[in-house]
Structures are given as C-alpha cells and as structure tokens.
Amino acid sequence: MKRRIFIAINLSESVRKGIARATAPLIGAMPNYRFLQPEWWHITLLFLGSQDDDMVARTIDVLNNVIIRFPEPMIELTEFSLAPTAARPRMIWARGSEATAVELAPVQELLKNSLDQAGVRFENKEKRFCPHVTVARLKKGLPAPPATVSFPKINLSFHPEAVECWESNLAPGKAKYRALSFHRFNDF
Questions:
Q1: β-strand partners of 141
Q2: According to CATH, what is the number of the domain 2-183?
Q3: How far apart are CA 65 and CA 149, in angstroms?
Q4: Residue boundaries of the structural domains of the chain
Q5: What is the DSSP letter of 83?
Q6: What is the rounded CA–CA span in Å between residue 51 and residue 59?
Q7: Bridge partner residues of 4 (DSSP)
C-alpha cells in the first residue's frame, strides 16, 4: 500500500496560539484563502511523497538514527508572506528566520543522504530549504490578492523536542494528517 509521507517538526502550543492570534484578522480580510486547522500546522523538513510500507519502515529507521545526533534547534518564525513567491501567491506562510534555516540545514542534509543510502527515493533533493508553516491555501479557481498585502508582524520561537514522520491523506477541500513516529532530538 502506498502512503503520502513527509518528515516534519510539530509546533509548540504557544507558537500555534501566536500564529492563530496573528492570523485571526486575515481570515475575514482574505476570503479567497482557506485557512488551515492549527492542529495540522508544522514545518516540513522533507516531503517524501508516495511510499510503500517497506520505505516507510526504512524512513523511520533512518529517523531513529539521525535525529538523536542533533540538539534541539531554535525555531524562529519572523514574518508572514505570500508564497511560494509574491508573483505566484498560492499560500500564506509563517516564515522561519535565516538562522532557523541555517540551524536546520545540517539535519535536513543528513536526512536526505541517509534516506538515499537506505534506498528511499523522493523528489526535490536539491530544492533550497525555506522553513515555514503553511497557514492558508488559495481556494481553487479563485484569484490571488495583490502582492501588496500587509501582514501582521510576528516574533515566535521555540525549541522542538522531536521530528515526526507524518502521513497525509488528501481529500477534497481538506487534507488529513497522522503522525506515524516520533524522534527526539538529543538534549545534550
């Protein structure tokens, strides 16, 4: 059986609440966007796509061996933006700082290399990592707002305790997520 798999960092409750407070005024102001449920907000480290059960098991083995090698990173979410670019605004992101990208890059790189060595195949291996939380998606068939949208400021940070392997099931109008495994960072 094939499953749609990704590796993610779950958000702390205080960060979820901070994003929810900041985005509350946007919900009515941006009706062409569907705002996602806060319980599904996360930072994707790697999207692995469609994987069979054997590849999921290999992925979990890799996570067991890789994540423990790293201390808990500092995650900073510093701004909202239209994404992936203002010219093609299909989503609204809470973006991670450059320091967050630098801190997570070695984790992501070792994961990519270890998954490759374990025979787990996935696309976008060379894609530049931009840590973010997708908080809203443009509704199908509706136009995007002008690129001059003004977003509220944010300054949210936390130390995640783990990385998780998640499965996503896409349903019309709503994705459903389920955590398959939990892998703690080292608390040196």
A1: none
A2: 3.90.1140.10
A3: 43
A4: 2-183
A5: E
A6: 10
A7: 50, 168
Q: Per-block average pLDDT, block size 10, for the chain (188 residues)?
A: 94 96 91 92 95 97 97 96 86 96 96 96 77 94 79 94 93 80 90
Q: What is the DSSP letter of 100?
A: H
The full 3-state SS of 48-100, as one line of letters, equals: EEEEEHHHHHHHHHHHHHHHHHCECCCEEEEEEEEEEECCEEEEEEEEECHHH
Report CA Rg, the chain. Answer: 17
Angle CA(96)–CA(170)–CA(180) in degrees, nearest 5? 70
| Whole-angstrom distance, CA of residue 5 vs CA of residue 129 | 18
> Which residue's entry shows tokens 């991670």?
96
Assess contact for 111 and 60: CB atoms under 8 A.
no
**Nearest-10 crossing angle of helices 98-117, 53-66:** 130
* CA–CA dist 130, 59 (Å, integer): 22
